[in-house]
């Protein structure tokens, strides 16, 4: 199975987030290395490190989104929580002696790439405009449309 190669396609243009994403990708590739070499104890330790680092990353990312007033913070937080919960289940099952490393890798690898290229790219311009100051961030077109059609909806 090919590893994830870090490239500009995974960069969202916010330095702290890009650095953290790069570290997460490195941990996922390390997890794959341990699985492929048969180092299941090391794979479980790497999965634990990945969970801890991803938890730190999510808190940082969510703080940026909150400061910027990003309107899709709630579903973004929900996606993070579900990811961490699923990884934690894999880790706990592994600690109980079940072989879960392959399943964990099969989950974390595509999820992370999809999340960066999808939800994270969606907020990038909004947060960058907020960080630049002055100019008020523009809502994505679909939110502007929803707000126009349903002015009293939950944001």
List the helices and strands and how they pair.
Elements: H1 15-36, H2 40-68, H3 73-95, H4 101-132, H5 141-149
Task: Please describe what this structure looks like.
This protein is mainly alpha-helical and 155 residues long. It has a single domain (13-149), classed as Four Helix Bundle (Hemerythrin (Met), subunit A). It starts with 14 loop residues before the first helix and ends in a 6-residue tail after the last helix. It has helices spanning 15-36, 40-68, 73-95, 101-132, 141-149. It has five helices and no strands.
Fraction in helix: over 70%
Number of helices: 5
Mean pLDDT: 88
Q: What is Rg? A: 17 Å
Give a quick set of tags describing it:
0% strand, Four Helix Bundle (Hemerythrin (Met), subunit A), 5 helices, elongated, 155 residues
Short description:
The chain has 5 helices and no strands.
């Amino acid at each position: 199975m090919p590893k994830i190669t870090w490239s500009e396609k995974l960069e969202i243009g916010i330095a702290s987030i890009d650095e953290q994403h790069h570290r997460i990708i490195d941990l996922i590739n390390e997890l794959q290395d341990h699985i492929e070499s048969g180092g299941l104890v090391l794979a479980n330790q790497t999965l634990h490190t990945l969970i801890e680092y991803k938890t730190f990353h999510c808190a940082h990312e969510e703080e940026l989104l909150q400061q910027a007033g990003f309107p899709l913070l709630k579903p973004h937080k929900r996606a993070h929580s579900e990811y961490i919960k699923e990884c934690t289940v894999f880790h706990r099952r592994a600690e109980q002696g079940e072989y879960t490393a392959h399943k964990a890798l099969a989950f974390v690898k595509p999820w992370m790439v999809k999340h960066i290229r999808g939800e994270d790219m969606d907020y990038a311009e909004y947060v960058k405009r907020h960080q630049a100051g002055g100019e008020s961030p523009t809502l994505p077109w679909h939110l502007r449309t929803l707000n126009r059609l349903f002015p009293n909806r939950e944001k």
